[in-house]
Amino acid sequence: MIHSTVKSATASKEKDNYRSLSSHIITLHRRLLHSLNLGTRYFDEKTNRWKWQSVNIEVQKNVLRSIAAFLDSISADARATRHTIIVKESAADILGALLWILQCKNEPLLSMASNVAVKLVSILPSPLLQPRLLDLVYCLSSLLSSHQVEVAIPCATALNLVISNLSATSEKAVIEALKETEISICIVRNIKDCGAQKIEYFLEMASLLSTILLRWPSSRFPVCNDVELMKVLANMRTRTDCAIKLVLLKLYTSLALCDSVAQKLIEDGKVFLQMIVQAMGKSNPHDVRIEGFRLAQCLLRSQENCLKVMNLCGEALVDAIICGMRETGPCSKKIENNYGSVLVEACKLAQITRWAGNHHIRFWKQGIDEVLLNLLIENIHDQSSELVLPLEKQISVVKEGLKLNYHVALRSYVWDILGWLTIHCGENSNPCSYTHESELHINLLILCACFTFVDAIQKWCRICQNDADDNFQSEPVSRAVLMMIYSP
């Protein structure tokens, strides 16, 4: 009885979903089914599944048009993609027909078919593609070397989407398929030969390569050792187009995740490093600046690399970091929730303060004390305009400021940076020797750290383990206070 009730409720829900669709989507779905019925279905014993086929080029063209129209219609209706039974029921047939047409490699249809593949992987939920995902990867990979640019470009785009959205369960099998097809070798060859092609060709191939290198670490070093490829990338660095800048930075970041590759890139010299620093500047779009900071983070993961870079362009790099950390914006909540922001990436890069060096002097000269204070207390400049504040007033300002939870998500970075600046503070980088204002900022920072530390200790004593934000910052602030105690 219960089973029949549940079954009835499910059927009723499916009918409601169907009724919620527009008549236009329903019409396009019927046309799709009619087009598919013009082909034939056969049972493949090797794969133990039904497959669609048709050698008639006009039938194939009609099917592609029907698939494209249906996908366009459901992409405009979020309910259709998420809830509708006809989408789930049609996915296998759509994917099967598309794979057959791509495998036929009828040149007049390949461009249309590869563009439909892009729509398919960008619109349908990943679980619906899962049963034939490997077939799709093999098929698209084989077409990357097509002499038709109009085919190779969308195939690269579709593959990029597939790899970017891989689930943990399918990742290993897909990576093995990519190895088997020698896809990285194919893409590198395409990039080296892209001189006469559209710039979009380079962008899509380079973007796909960076995505593969992120997922497939063992492929990074061979790619970087390709001298001809690295020359092509170096030549592209002179281009001012923001799209080229962005894809180059992402590709270099993927390569720099390998330590030996990062060292080789640094040895490339000042010109390469200046490109990165320039990318962090305010004159660039938001996404270009973010990638500039991320690439720098990869290059500066070791003290040895950090010292090399600082000797080549230390001042410019620190200036770019400080500039990024000053971009707090009008609304703290928006920044806290946007972990891809320039501010967050600049704070991550500022953690190069963990290592001793002359860059500490530059950080203090550029007002790192004021920058850190601005990340802890909103509008602190207005509250500390007087050069001398009584201790009671300082305590009041700090207590009230910390209550507002301004930039809570950034506080762990602030405490780490403050602690490292303190522990490496010596005669050559004494912040209090610069201005009276710096001395006030440092006093306020010390108070902020101490009050947060005391608050964390009290909460530990109450065994308060439910507040993620407090747990998130308690360890860094404890380190910061200890570093202050043991600093010179």
UniProtKB/TrEMBL annotation:
<dbReference type="Pfam" id="PF26522">
    <property type="entry name" value="ARM_6"/>
</dbReference>
<dbReference type="InterPro" id="IPR044953">
    <property type="entry name" value="At1g04390-like"/>
</dbReference>
<protein>
    <submittedName>
        <fullName>BTB/POZ domain protein</fullName>
    </submittedName>
</protein>
<dbReference type="InterPro" id="IPR016024">
    <property type="entry name" value="ARM-type_fold"/>
</dbReference>
<dbReference type="InterPro" id="IPR011989">
    <property type="entry name" value="ARM-like"/>
</dbReference>
<feature type="domain" description="At1g04390 ARM repeat">
    <location>
        <begin position="146"/>
        <end position="258"/>
    </location>
</feature>
<dbReference type="InterPro" id="IPR059007">
    <property type="entry name" value="ARM_At1g04390"/>
</dbReference>
